Amino acid sequence: MRIKNSVAFASIIIFIICVYSFLLGNNVFEGKFENEPIPWYFLAKGLFCGIALYLLAIIAEKLTDKK
């Protein structure tokens, strides 16, 4: 249970960092939106890594419960 909570927190932090880099790379904080490909990559990477990390923790928790 503790592993799932800490992994959920880590995946949220990863997602927040990637969304921030997406917004920073597209100059949203300056009041304009430039559609650059690299910030979109960071956003997709954040979504994938956050969800994959959380699902991996759930799978590992289920496997350890079976033993």
Strand and helix map with partners:
Blueprint: H1 2-25, H2 37-66
Overview of the structural elements:
The protein has 67 residues and is mainly α. It has one domain (2-66). The chain contains 2 helices and no strands. Helix 1 (2-25) packs antiparallel against helix 2 (37-66). It is elongated. The model has no long low-confidence stretch (mean pLDDT 87).
Give a brief outline of the structure.
The chain has 67 residues and is mainly α.
Features:
67 residues; mainly alpha; elongated
Number of separate strands: 0
| Average pLDDT rating | 87
Number of domain modules: 1
Q: What is the assembly state of the chains in this entry? A: single chain
What does the radius of gyration come to?
Answer: 16 Å
Q: Structural class, from helix and strand content?
A: mainly alpha
Helical residue percent?
over 70%
Biggest sheet, open or closed, and with what strands and sense?
none
